[in-house]
Amino acid sequence: MPPYIATFLPEGINDHCPVKISLLDSLPKAKKPFQLCNVWVNHPQFIERVESIWATHIDGCRMLQVVRKLKLLKRSLKELNGQHFRNIISEANGNREPLMQIQQALQANPMDQQLQQKEKMKYLEFRRTSYLVEMFLQQKSKATWLRLGDYNTKYFFTVIKHRKLQHAITQLHDNQNVLQTDPIAIANIFVNYYENLWETREVSRCKANERILKNGPTLSVAHKMDLLKKYTEKDVKTAIFEIDSNKSQGPDGYGSGFYNAIWNVIGKDVSEAILEFF
User: Which of 263, 271, 259 is nearest to 231 (CA)?
Assistant: First the structure.
């Protein structure tokens, strides 16, 4: 189905607002940035690939070492995804039909040990692939309140579709109040806005009234001393592990689920990089 936009026009003398439906040309597909999928961490090769990259010697400060290793790791994880996870949805759907056929045959001949063994193998195979699909779709849908294993695949697809529509920007007024629908023109509106925002300098700025501030709640001496304490590796780990694994990743494509899964491999370097910054 081609994309379209709906524009609600002024009602004028009518008792309703006219709706203008405009069909759009196929939107250009931008190159998708790297995003780590939490299902990757379940593969046996995942830890091996991380350990291999993390053993690489890189000169520079701690933060630079971590950043460069994460960049090197992206290529290896993309290969892992292409080899084992690119078609997990179709693979799970393909495993469903053989399982149902064997179960039907087993219902007709329940004492057949060969069918029992086949049913067990197909069940475990389908259970594994379907679980990976649900884990993958849950991360994309951000439906973190649902339990995995309850076969919520259809619901996840609906939420993902809704999120895409909700986040899509198909039209936007520029600084001349002209409605733009071209994706490139819309992107330029955002770029120009933030470029002008950073170039703007405030001529006069009101100072905070200290007398008014002191009349409100203030920090005690003990609180101030706590804020001055140095962070520890334990503080860093606690902060990262408190972030839900399905939360959106950072600009580098790595989410908290990645750090939680391999903290014993990269935790010390990540903690030292963060503490070096502070």
Answer: 271
